[in-house]
Amino acid sequence: xxxxxxxxxxxxxxxxxxxxxxxxxxxxxxxxxxxxVQSPGQGLQLLLKYxxxxxxxxxxxxxxxxxxxxxxxxxxxxPSVHWSDAAEYFCAVGLxxxxxxxxxxxxTRLTVIP
Amino acid sequence: ETGVTQTPRHLVMGMTNKKSLKCEQHLGHxxxxxxxQSAKKPLELMFVYSLEERVENNSVPSRFSPECPNSSHLFxxxxxxxxxxxxxxxxxxxxxGDPLYxxxxxxxTRLTVL
Lengths: 114, 114
Known about the structure:
The complex is a heterodimer of chains A (114) and B (114).
Chain A: E1 3-5, E2 10-14, E3 19-21, E4 24-26, E5 32-38, E6 44-50, E7 56-58, E8 64-68, E9 73-78, E10 87-94, E11 102-104, E12 108-113
Chain B: E1 4-7, E2 10-13, E3 18-25, E4 31-37, E5 44-50, E6 53-57, E7 64-70, E8 73-79, E9 87-94, E10 104-105, E11 109-113
């Protein structure tokens, strides 16, 4: 069965510092991979996605993620964090067949300190 | 209105009440979804509708009853809920039920069952 693991429940970084949020997945084939962000009181917003091709994908708000098949990982990165990036971040796996089901990790809450 | 809207944003109900959550999408999409977001648990897919027909039901208790009268509207009817059903209920839509199509999320309804 497919699963998504986000090992960090909560991360605190200083504004301007770099950020990496970890995501590992378990799935028998190459999945579709997504990162979503959820600000307080808001729904989820898609940051970026990987379907195929170049394993380094660029997203909105200066985020990028790299798919590493050998490590079953899809870590999210940003070189310089802004205070407005404080939110909850979710990694998700989508299956290539069947209905448009997304399987989510438990999320990583990001706190940004001045 | 743009995007995906959900009403009400907050709902408090007793275990014997009957209530409904409403979702409306203004994106011209053909597929709609209900998710449950509980604290410290992954987002759980509850129901998927594609072209107004239910295509996925992830073993959700019968006290949750979805309705999709047309491609723009999705309801979740609630009756005799339990306190553990308290959660944030998110609605999403996508252009098609195919996994390639991005899901757009509403802001959610925060449900509290007393």
